Amino acid sequence: MKNKKIAPSILSANFAKLGEEIILLEKAGADLLHIDVMDGVFVPNLTFGAPVLKDIKKLTKLKFDVHLMITNPENLLKDFINAGADYLTIHVEATKKVENCLKIIKSSKVKAGISIKPNTKLDEIIPYLHLVDLVLIMTVEPGFGGQSFLTEQISKIKSLKKYITEKNLKIEISVDGGINQETAKLCTDADILVAGSYIFSKNYKTQIQSLR
Ligand code: DX5
Ligand code: ZN
């Protein structure tokens, strides 16, 4: 079985020393840097915007896996693309202009991602799969780190994997929320595992290795 990519979420970092944390994650063997952007509207929490990404981009070679939890992402896509997003993921629930957003992202040579909340059916994203490089399955309600993995989402991951294989699509599956050493083992069909609190709770390198 091929190794999964591990994407630490900086949501659980100490923001007072964000730069140092990112350098530590890179040294610890992270494959991608997962960046949770929240607007206080789509989710009941606020984080950071494109100017922060632009500054941290200078510190690391890690690819930026940007998870936009913002309403009407079409208004800010260009900012995140210019700030150095390598993957840019929008939520299907966040806008009426999903197709438009994905086309903007793809035309900028950035990998386009689509994400779904736990209560959203897989059917909602099927019409857009020909436009995406990544699907981000949420295994917690978006908004906060440190929540418990919703095991019932496993069947969604499996159905998605089946669909991708049958249609011969080139799409990475990423799983986000409540990932730890135990729940990681349930995500056999994932290509990328996002983990925040688990990685930041102890030695970053050991934690990252334990998820592969
Ligand atoms: C939640 C975010 C996640 C979060 C995961 O809205 O999308 O990326 O940081 O945190 P843990 O791994 O602690 O569940
Ligand atoms: Zn996330």
Give a description of the structure.
It is a single chain. This protein has helices at 18-27, 50-57, 77-82, 98-107, 154-166, 181-186, 197-200, 204-211, and strands at 5-8, 32-38, 63-69, 87-91, 111-116, 134-138, 172-176, 192-195. By secondary structure, it is an alpha/beta fold. Strands 1-8-7-6-5-4-3-2 form an 8-stranded parallel sheet. Helix 5 (154-166) links the parallel strand 6 (134-138) and strand 7. It binds D-xylitol-5-phosphate and zinc ion (ZN). The site of zinc ion has 6 residues, from strand 2.
Helix content: 25-40%
Q: Let me know the number of strands.
A: 8
Round the mean pLDDT to the nearest integer and report it: 98
Order of helices and strands: EHEHEHEHEEHEHEHH
Strand content: 15-25%
Placed side by side, the strands forming the largest sheet appear as 1-8-7-6-5-4-3-2
CATH architecture, please? Alpha-Beta Barrel
Counting helices, strands and paired strands, the structural category is alpha/beta
